[in-house]
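3.2 Worked example (two chains)
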Amino acid sequence: MRRDATGSYATSVAGGETVRAFVPAPLPPMPPLDLSGARQPLLERATLALGRLDSVSLLLPDPQLFLYAYVRREAVLSSQIEGTQSSLSDLLLFELDESPGVPFDDVVEVSNYIAALEHGMARLREGFPLCNRLLREMHARLMARGRGSDKAPGEFRRSQNWIGGTRPGNAQFVPPPPQEVEPCMTALERFIHNEPGAMPVLLKAALAHVQFETIHPFLDGNGRLGRLLIALLLREGGALSQPLLYLSLYFKQHRSHYYTLLDRVRTEGDWEAWVDFFLEGVEETANGAVQTAQRLVALFQQDTRRVQASGRTAANGLRVLDALRQRPLCSLGQLCHTTGMTFPTATKSMLKLMELGIVRELTGQRRNRLFVYDAYLSILNEGGEAL
């Protein structure tokens, strides 16, 4: 549906140039979203897929293991959209204190993303509301170290920003002037909390994500925080008990169309085309996450049987395998710390897993060796190649 522009323009100054900055109208859209035709079945399918994802913990012996790995996969993908070159392996190496040499600026952005997500989810579990204060707290963690740490972490911007182009005058999009940021974010917060249950949480998340990206309330980190906002809304709205739905891979795979649809919302008011894209992404991503969990369960069961059949060293081998399920990339020192095994026993057990083809050594060295649970990391890495 075309509604014409979904906001108004205000004159602003950026980089010494006078520009037309877009100020979005408050949500919800007027006239209301059209849910006729194929859109209602699409919403129902996405909701069912989300329900299956929420019950995935019933499949897993330890859902926290899946959550640990899946959150890190998402952090890598979301940061790649912003141009980082880090991989999941880089992040896991970075988290090993004894493994220097990983590119700091890229991987610290990914690590910050995890810290921001974990802080947001912890606050929601405490009963803290999803509000602008929480978003600012998360932004402070997102930008705490590395690139962007000098761009007012945790504070709404007080200067004009722009998106695309080589300068403000030829920018693809200019968000609201700084004096409009606080009122726009207050209106977004009001939409998130007004009339609980009046709008399906998936639709609320779809609309709120676009509105946040349009306001672009921070000097940096808006894309990553805008994607985190989706996970927060689904958690607070009761659609998910754990933060297991992330659309970064879907947005990455359809990057050009994603940005086109955001522009169409702003210029033509075509919320319906965006909602269709969003719901299709939720259905595809939720189904993919369930399949990933099922594949990991099958892998763990298969490798457990292989270790159990390995003879009298099987008990120690299973302890090592369990540790690798928690951290698919580790050193022998970390393994000893995790399992309480002696260094010689850990070494012998790890070499047995290498012999079985479950584990691969990364360094080729005799000292300070690093080991990876190859098949596990491969499953998580799918779609995670840098742009």
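3.2.1 Second chain
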Amino acid sequence: MLMGTINDAILNPVNAEGASGASISWLIDRAKGAPTFAMRLIRLEPNGQTPRHEHAWEHEVFVIDGTGKLWAEGHWTALERGCFALVKPGEEHQFAAGLEGMRFLCLVPHGAT
């Protein structure tokens, strides 16, 4: 068994082109014994964002705290604490935080980066 808290997560900057004020921690992954999926904690500083992109794998997302929005299916949708979303494979998407920032969990299959 593997257990921990998000308060102990070590966040590293996201250096991808188009990202600003974004950091990530791989909470659970193959190296920690997960056979299929990885769980990441993503923090966006106030007005921070991930790059707009698409790829061949899905994301399952759960907002822990803060507010923001998700670009998917050609438009922005508001996010707040307690919201969840499925980003489908091949779907262009982007996350952006509001004035207070946002933290969310993002689950992806192994091999996704």
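3.3 Remarks
The two ends are 24 Å apart (CA to CA).
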